[in-house]
Amino acid sequence: MGKPTGFLEYGRELPRRRPVPVRLRDWREVYEPFPAQSANEQGARCMDCGVPFCHEGCPLGNLIPEWNDLVYRDNWSTAIERLQA
User: Fold this and answer.
1) Domain map of the chain by residue range?
2) Of 9, 43, 44, 68, which has the fewest beta carbons less than 10 angstroms from its beta carbon?
3) What is the DSSP code (8-state) at residue 74?
């Protein structure tokens, strides 16, 4: 899962929020689009911890570690299939 040293190599990065005055005028996403390269790096941070609290904490029951690995490997089509399964 991910890159074994990814957690040490890449810092945590969050998508930027759109400014509130702009968001008040539409119903679009709160966050700016996250660049694919940034998503790949964040997917590399998955530590394969053995007890994935991220998976347990997901209200949708998504397999977060598996999804992170697919994003890290730039396999977006399978990643979206996993989310929609």
Assistant:
1) 6-84
2) 9
3) T
